[in-house]
Hints:
Number of domains: 2
Number of helices: 11
Strand content: 15-25%
Shape: globular
Structural class: alpha/beta
Largest sheet: 6 strands, mixed
Radius of gyration: 21 Å
Helix content: 40-55%
CATH topology of the largest domain: D-Maltodextrin-Binding Protein, domain 2
Order of helices and strands: HEHEHEHEEHEHEHEHEEHHEH
Amino acid sequence: MGLGGPAALLTATSARAQEAYPSKTIRCVVAFGAGGIVDITTRVVVAQMAAQLGQPIVVENRAGANGNIGTEHVLRSPADGYTLMACSPYIAINPHLVANTRWKAADFAGVGLVGAPPNVFVVPASLPVSTMRELVDYVKARPGQLNVTNPSAGSSNHLGQELLFGLTGMEMQNVMYKTQAEMLPDLINGMHALSLVTIGLSLPHIRDGRLKALAISAPRRAPDLPNVPTLAEAGYPDAMFLPWFGLVAAAATPRPIVRRLAAEMQKALAHPEVVSRLEKMGTLITPMPAEEMDAFIAQENSRWARVIAQRNIKPLT
């Protein structure tokens, strides 16, 4: 065999393996419990991807440590395209906020973005404001005297609010809850002045007049709330963020496999049944190919690192 023989043989073998991909079941890890929005959305998308690929994609829930347990499991698995992970802003937040995080955003390769359930800034009907600018003026006239609710410290809702506060100079007292649903009764009763919640949860209360919607954090208006402006339209374009979710693989996964998965994901997100199911969940579908997803995650990583530092948000243990 010539000098180039072994190397050529290895390259050919690797190429054949990638051409045959996938040849067995793929796992998709969700680093949170079953039944949440990331879990449900992931199952809809990967079921269609599995049908297209001709191999099962099994969703595994590995919750704990603010998502770190499942994430570390993925990074310990072979980077061969047979272990994927559902992702959300936590992969860009945890390295800067959660103590003992042993990974960074750059450890992942983006497969694709699914989208996000847009959040809306809501206030109780009793609060004497009707626009975001009126809210900002009202809060700034009462620094530290009013409450804002959060589903958990370090969540995208929490950091999205902190982003707004840093841009406007608002000062409010954070009141933490376990879930968004638990926040709403106390907000409706006027115990708190502001919440940032998904449209799906807040819409019934907005329609019956118990909450007022001031602005939606999304690039365009929501069909269910056509009269509610976006944050940009309300005068705060730099405060817009989305609690996005998508799919990633370990960064060492061969690029041809990542691109194959990305292409199948794009195809799945265009499937009429997938579109219908995601839209019924309130998801703003925002497809994004692999390379754009990589740049997006890097951008999110820089953004939340800056917000956490500027707002002096303490690490979570």
